[in-house]
Structure prediction request, 290 residues.
Amino acid sequence: MKTIYIPVSDRPECVVALQQGFTLGQQLSASIIGCHIRSHSDSAVNLPAETKDSDLYTESYDLAWENALAEKSEGNDSVKAQLLFDKMAQQFDYKLCKKSSGSACAMWTEKVGSPDRLFSIFGPVSDLIVVSRPAKKGRSVANTIMLGAVLNAAAPVLILPQSGSTNTLGQRIAIAWNQSPEAALAVKAALPLLQTAKEVNIITNGAENRPGPKAKHLAKYLAFWGINTNHIKEKESNDSVALMQAYKTSQSDLLVMGGYSRSRFRQQLFGGVTQYMLHEAKIPVFMLHT
Prediction:
């Protein structure tokens, strides 16, 4: 991983995202790009049909950016956001830069438009996007940015809880494995983190009788990368319960998983776990939606 994008505004959850983003940047020798997203009157939200049909979609997503336009409450938010980013870069001994180079640096940028459109532009050319999970009663704009990243970036997204220490994130990594291509792609995207982890646990729930590689095949693949794994087998009727139970029992500090739309839910691939991990769980999640 060489580029980590972090959406930044003058909000507490952005401090969490920046702290963890810079920590990972140091660990992986990656550049950090802080991006402040500004709305304007032409930034209408036009969601694709498959997004509106997804269980990831909520009414607040459709209205959030229009509400932001109506509020007209940005003020000096972009200035404060940049000051926060510069302060965090200094704290982590990152050199500020205005153009990309071969060495790790911190770069500031501002984009104008709606999150869904902007993430579809710079997401595919980034290695990781870091956001903090919005509070349930928080502003819908924060939720819009998180979902915009997950649904449109075509890149892995690290979703962080708003509180709690993330200093040890990535030391004990759990993989939600359901034999699907989406899960396999998420694992491949997470390889740089898996290689530096002290422990990696593959979590399955129930019989591995679906098409695709089993946990033992994944373990063999990861061994080629020098990654030793443990297999945790759960037998629960609810996939979210099974996953959280194994995550806590193994004392993991990061979950790697694929993200699924409604069509995938109908195929019983971890059921509604994507929805749960996005909106209910209070753990760090490394998610790739394809």
